[in-house]
């Protein structure tokens, strides 16, 4: 059982920087308000409370962005981030109206670039229910990724539960991948080597989506350069040691997690459904298929850390290339603010992973 709220708050404050503590605590408070006991969700209020950032055609800190609908039939939109081409803007010396960036339509109709660059397809977190591509925490993270990798980030505004249950988020992720690999302006390399050099990434539910999209890509012959999972959200009916030990201690409770799985999974499914527990009793092993390399970021104070470590071990058992970065004293969301050694060291790991697997 979780301890008292006062004990849990005090424990959090000893390991979490105050800015991160305030950020995640505020999100937790709003999330508790928005979830209903009957499984429904206060979507209108959620949209009002979510702090958002508009796309910016002119660079801010060397990065510009724009929103683009890739599937009119369901209104599936992505936000595309790119580095400013103006040298001063890219260096952060000139911003806003004074900065120079190429027109969006011109960018979308580019031919493949000769110099290889990564394309990160990013799936935001929020336990399949909260947040969007325009949520400020994820807009900021995607901008950091652009500055980190000098490539392009395509953030996917997938449909959310409980209005859109399994497999809608996975279908939207797959649609985004197919769109990305079909676009000449996202390809790089010379001659037959010109292709979209795609990495899949996401945190929380976004990491879960990245896994399932990567499995489908392996089945259908689409090359993925790598998966980057941050505190990926997995579950199961049997509780793990970390779930019992950390229940309610660092922002997240099992009751929270159970609500989100019930909101996303098919109505008659339990948490051993393959969407939740991919290597569980109803899941599928991945031996013998060309599954991509994985960089798995695990926070030791995330109650689902055992599940993430178990996921990594299952991939290894199936013969796949996995690197785990286990930050034992980090909590959920540490990568959202650049205020800890955990953040800076993990960003270095991500940069190294991108560079090592680009070609």
Please, could you describe this protein's structure?
The protein is an alpha/beta fold and 359 residues long. It has a single domain (15-56, 67-82, 103-357), classed as Rossmann fold, CATH 3.40.50. 38% of the residues lie in helices and 15% in strands. The chain contains twelve helices and eight strands. The chain has an eight-stranded mixed sheet with strand order 1-2-4-3-5-6-7-8, sandwiched between helices. α7 (168-182) packs across α8. Mean pLDDT is 91; it is low at 1-11 and 87-100.
Short description:
One of its GO terms (molecular function) is gibberellin binding. With 359 residues, the chain is α/β, with parallel strands linked by helices.
Helical segment count: 12
Strand content: 5-15%
CATH class identity: Alpha Beta
Number of E strands:
8
Structural class: alpha/beta
| Number of self-contained structural domains | 1
Per CATH, which architecture? 3-Layer(aba) Sandwich
Helical content stands at 25-40%
Global Rg: 20 Å
Q: Describe the main β-sheet briefly.
A: 8 strands, mixed
Distance between the termini: 48 Å
What is the CATH T-level topology? Rossmann fold
Determine the CATH superfamily. Answer: Alpha/Beta hydrolase fold, catalytic domain
What is the helix/strand order?
Answer: HHHEEHHEHEHEHEHHEHEH
Shape type: globular
Low confidence ranges: 1-11, 87-100
Order of adjacent strands in the largest pleated sheet: 1-2-4-3-5-6-7-8
Instruction: Summarize model confidence as the mean pLDDT.
Output: 91
């Amino acid at each position: 059982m979780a301890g008292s709220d006062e004990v849990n708050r005090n424990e959090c404050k000893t390991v979490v920087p105050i800015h991160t503590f305030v950020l995640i605590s505020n999100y937790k408070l709003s999330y508790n308000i928005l979830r209903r006991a009957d499984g429904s969700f206060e979507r209108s209020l959620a949209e009002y409370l979510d702090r958002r950032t508009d796309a910016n055609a002119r660079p801010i800190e060397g990065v510009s962005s724009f929103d683009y609908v890739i599937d009119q039939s369901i209104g599936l939109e992505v936000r595309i981030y790119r580095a400013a081409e103006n040298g001063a803007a890219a260096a952060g010396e000139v911003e806003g109206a004074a900065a120079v960036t190429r027109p969006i339509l011109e960018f979308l109709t580019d031919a493949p670039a000769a110099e290889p660059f990564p394309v990160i397809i990013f799936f935001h977190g929020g336990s399949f229910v909260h947040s969007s591509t325009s949520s400020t925490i994820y807009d900021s993270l995607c901008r950091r990724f652009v500055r980190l990798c000098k490539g392009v980030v395509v953030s996917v505004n997938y449909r959310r539960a409980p209005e859109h249950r399994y497999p809608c988020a996975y279908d939207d992720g797959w649609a985004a991948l197919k769109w990305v690999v079909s676009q000449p302006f996202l390809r790089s390399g010379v001659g037959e080597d010109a292709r979209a050099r795609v990495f899949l990434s996401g945190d929380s539910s976004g990491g879960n989506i990245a896994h399932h999209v990567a499995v489908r890509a392996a089945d259908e012959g689409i090359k993925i350069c790598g998966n980057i999972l941050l505190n990926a959200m997995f579950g199961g009916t049997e509780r793990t040691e970390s779930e019992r030990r950390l229940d309610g201690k660092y922002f997240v409770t099992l009751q929270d997690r159970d609500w989100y799985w019930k909101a996303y999974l098919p109505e008659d499914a339990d948490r051993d459904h393959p969407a939740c527990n991919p290597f569980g009793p109803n899941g599928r092993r991945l031996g013998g298929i060309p599954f991509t390399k994985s960089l798995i970021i695990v926070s030791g104070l995330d109650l689902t850390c055992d599940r993430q470590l178990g996921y990594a071990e299952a991939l290894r058992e199936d013969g796949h290339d996995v690197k785990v970065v286990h930050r034992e004293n980090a909590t959920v969301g540490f990568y959202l603010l650049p205020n800890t050694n955990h953040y800076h060291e993990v960003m270095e790991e991500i940069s190294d992973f991108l560079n090592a697997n680009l070609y």
